[in-house]
Amino acid sequence: MSTDDWLLLAGLVGAIFLGTSTQRITGVGFALISSPLLVALLGPFDGVIVVNIFGTLTAFAVFWQVRSQVEYSRAVRMLVPALVAIIPGAWVAREVPPHVLSVLIGALVVLALAGSFVARPGGFFSGRPGAVLAGAVSGFMNVTAGVGGPAVSAYAVASRWPQTTFAATAQLYFFVLGLTSLLAKQALPDLRWPQVAGCILAVVAGVVVGEQTSRRIPPQVARTGVIALAFLGSGLILTRGILGWVGY
Predict the structure, then answer these.
(1) Is the pLDDT of residue 160 over 90?
(2) Which of 42-46, 165-169, 190-194 ranks highest by mean pLDDT?
(3) Looking at residue 135, what is its pLDDT?
(4) Structural domain spans, the chain
(5) What are the pLDDT digits (tens) for 125-152?
């Protein structure tokens, strides 16, 4: 391989390793961490497809590792509205200008996260309605903006969902959501076999390192990381929309 090929391989492996380890520690964050790097390396189409593929693989790998801690009923509660919301989300993604959509979604998630700080345990956002709303918004965002984590994070904060079970349950949720998105797109990225092999190894390494690291991080610190990543993701979406709106 040429020097450029090695640099590309190193960038792919690094982006996926960082995204995977972050997701294992906090329960979310693969797309938020890896997407900017992968899109810069591969372009918007292949970059997003790689995020989808290895984000789904990461979610499954982590889910299998923590499956005994998954709250399956809660996952189903979020998944059903999420999968339904993918249908109108796909239509909106085709019809609404991307920058307008990004501004709207980013602003809504920032408001949802801000509101979660004052939500009372046992309130509206703590029970079944909150799970349904979070799933619907997350599914809609996943197909329109490529980021489904912030809405789920907002629900986790509002409902005071324990970090351990949230991080486990979120993996099943993101795996099903990612697999559905991939089946809907019916496309594969233009990668060579060494790049594919390197990305798979990066997922394995990220899960192992994230597992070891998560044991040393207090739940409150991990939850703070979830909130920070959710704000970061919504902020990136909002910024991208504003820049697109003004012509940059």
Answers:
(1) no
(2) 165-169
(3) 92
(4) 3-245
(5) 667 888 898 899 888 877 776 677 778 8
DSSP state of 119: P
Least Cα distance to 223 among 20, 29, 2, 13 occurs for 29
Q: Is residue 226 scored above 80 in pLDDT? A: no
Average pLDDT, the chain: 82
CB atoms within 10 A of CB 132: 17
Taking residues 27-42, what's their average pLDDT? Answer: 78
Task: Output the 3-class SS for 87-107.
Answer: HHHHHHHHHCCHHHHHHHHHH
Is the pLDDT reported for residue 241 higher than 60? Answer: yes
Question: Which of 54, 61, 47, 28 lies closest to 198 in space, CA to CA?
Answer: 54
Query: What is the per-residue pLDDT for 200?
Result: 95
Residue among 115, 128, 67, 120 at smallest CA distance from 231: 115
How many CA atoms lie less than 13 Å away from 87 in the CB half-sphere?
A: 4
CB 90 within 8 A of CB 124: no
- Provide long-range contacts, Cβ within 8 A and 24+ apart, for 76-81: 77/128, 77/131, 77/132, 77/135, 78/131, 78/132, 78/134, 78/135, 78/138, 78/152, 78/155, 78/173, 79/135, 79/173, 79/176, 79/177, 80/132, 80/135, 81/132, 81/133, 81/135, 81/136, 81/139
Please give the C-alpha separations between residue 124 and each of 72, 119, 146, 155, 158, in angstroms, as whole numbers: 21, 8, 27, 11, 9
Which positions ≥6 away from 234 have C-beta within 8 Å?
105, 106, 109, 110, 113, 150
Give dist(CA 104, CA 98) in Å, integer: 10
How far, in Å, CA of 110 to CA of 34, rounded? 21
